[in-house]
Amino acid sequence: MYRLCVRDHFMIAHSFNGEIFGPAQRTHGATYVVDVVFQRPELDTDGLVIDIGLASDTLKEVLASYNFQNLDEVPEFKGKNTTTEFMAGVIFNALAKGIKEGRMGTTAQGITHMEVKLHESHVAWASYEGAL
Description:
Layout: E1 2-14, E2 28-40, H1 52-64, E3 69-70, H2 84-100, E4 113-119, E5 125-131
Parallel strand pairs: 1-3
Antiparallel strand pairs: 1-2, 2-4, 4-5
């Protein structure tokens, strides 16, 4: 399997509901480093996994809608705990939609798997991986 990774970051504020979250029930901030790994079994005719520029641009666009936002105030997340795991899935789905819509070019049509990994600190991360 061939893989290509692009990286970006975004900053948010949020809080969680539930005693399991302890002090994180209060509003707090996070700066996520985001790695997206695109995978395919064969390279395209140009020897690529995906157009790295289009992949980077699309990731930046997806993250821009959450960057510097309090996720507690984002309507689509009302009633949800916007955990690192949850946000990895949100970003995965947005990027998968971008591939389907052709926003990452024709090369992206050969992508069979993708992983979105959010690093919430230097010691902890969560990810969502799935087939496309």
